[in-house]
Amino acid sequence: MPAPKDLFKATDTLHVAVVGVGSSPGLVLSARWLAADGSEVAQARQDLAPQAPTVASFRLSQPEPWPAGDYRVEIAVNDRVAETRNFRIE
Known about the structure:
mainly beta; Immunoglobulin-like; two-stranded antiparallel sheet
């Protein structure tokens, strides 16, 4: 898997990939994109029941260019934030 990026163009589509190891019935994985002021840009959820290592992906785009600035994406497992990544749109 490629190294995480933290700098994007205003016209880019944003992608998040999450690698899960192990098994867990009834797993809900979510991605929540936030602007620097904490306002929610978007949210997506996936119901998973992995039996082996799994890659889940989320994608976010919009018809107009993204406003420049700092953002973050929160990855949650069953509504508990497990990882936060900061990124910038130029």
